[in-house]
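Below is a filled-in request sheet from our internal design queue. Each sheet records the structural input a requester submitted and the sequence that came back. We keep these sheets so that new team members can see what a complete request looks like end to end.

REQUESTER: design group, bay 2
PRIORITY: normal
MODE: inverse folding
CHAIN LENGTH: 314
BACKBONE (tokenized):
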């Protein structure tokens, strides 16, 4: 049996990324109902909003689902307590030290997965006692690793270092990409951008249309002085690049970023002034589809690609 389907008790080793402003209970429950593991993205939710989404997700699916929690969250203690109170069984943590909360969650019987961008952090997560790691390559949308290590090189390097299950992320939206990641050593995949462009995603329709219209080269990693983030090249992105020409201080970058840029772009649909976070794989996403259809397409393509492997034998 596959390590990831066994760990989470799911049908397919496909995890939906817990993306801010995209991953409400509708998306998470749809992915879980379709055989993957849905994640509610806590990063864009006030504590009581998260509680509401967890409760609605429990009503919408009887399958396993989890919550993604960026540990930089200001109300992190309250968030963790809500997760425990609501009986969530799976938590993905990111953007912080896994030692801080892993033992607390494990003591409550919760399966813990940590998102990393290097083999060094993968080892630290394993030492902290997590059940699996997500190794996310430089291709991914949203906040990203400073090392700019691609998924193609990151997965085998992490696989070489750890013994626990490994989930690949960054640039994966197809069955062929899923097979490639697993051949490199991953036990499963985490998919973000493809699910952001789904019917059930909580993103604004303007943003979904932007995803399917973004071509090769249409995104770029920027704002490394604050927290590296991959953005669509819209007006806000070019405003950032114009500021960089003046060798700005960190304070000037923070001032330009302002507040709630990601919400303005992805949730409210402001395509000029909003922060539009999406991965390089957007160039392969051409339509907004229901989650069930996305997963079935991925698995069909995966099965076809598996059968085609024989043509590479020499």
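RETURNED SEQUENCE:
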């Amino acid at each position: 049996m596959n390590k990831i389907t066994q760990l989470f008790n799911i049908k397919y080793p496909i995890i939906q990324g817990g993306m801010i402003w995209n991953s409400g209970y509708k998306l998470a429950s749809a992915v879980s109902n379709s055989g993957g593991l849905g994640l509610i993205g806590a990063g864009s939710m006030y504590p009581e909003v998260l509680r509401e989404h967890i409760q609605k997700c429990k009503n919408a699916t009887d399958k396993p689902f989890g919550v993604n929690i960026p540990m930089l969250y200001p109300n992190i203690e309250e968030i963790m307590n809500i997760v425990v109170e609501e009986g969530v069984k799976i938590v993905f943590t990111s953007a912080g030290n896994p030692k801080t909360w892993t033992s607390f969650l494990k003591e409550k019987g919760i399966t813990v997965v940590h998102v990393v961008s290097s083999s060094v952090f993968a080892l630290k997560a394993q030492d902290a006692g997590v059940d699996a790691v997500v190794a996310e390559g430089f291709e991914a949308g949203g906040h990203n690793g400073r090392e700019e290590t691609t998924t193609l090189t990151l997965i085998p390097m992490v696989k070489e270092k750890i013994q626990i299950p490994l989930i690949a992320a960054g640039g994966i939206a197809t069955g062929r990409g899923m097979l490639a990641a697993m051949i490199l050593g991953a036990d499963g995949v985490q998919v973000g951008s493809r699910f952001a462009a789904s019917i059930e995603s909580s993103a604004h329709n303007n943003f979904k249309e932007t995803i399917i219209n973004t071509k090769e080269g249409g995104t770029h990693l920027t704002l490394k002085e604050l927290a590296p983030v991959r953005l669509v090249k819209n007006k806000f992105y070019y405003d950032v690049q114009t500021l960089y020409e003046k060798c700005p201080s960190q304070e000037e970058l923070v001032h330009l970023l302002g507040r709630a840029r990601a919400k303005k772009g992805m949730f409210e649909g402001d395509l000029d002034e909003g922060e539009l976070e999406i991965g390089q794989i957007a160039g392969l996403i051409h339509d907004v589809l229901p989650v069930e259809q996305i997963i079935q397409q991925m698995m069909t393509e995966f099965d076809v690609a598996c059968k085609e492997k024989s043509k590479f034998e020499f």
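SHEET NOTES:
- The first helix runs from residue 3 to 8.
- Residues 3-203+283-302 form a domain with the TIM Barrel fold (CATH 3.20.20.70).
FILED BY: M.R.
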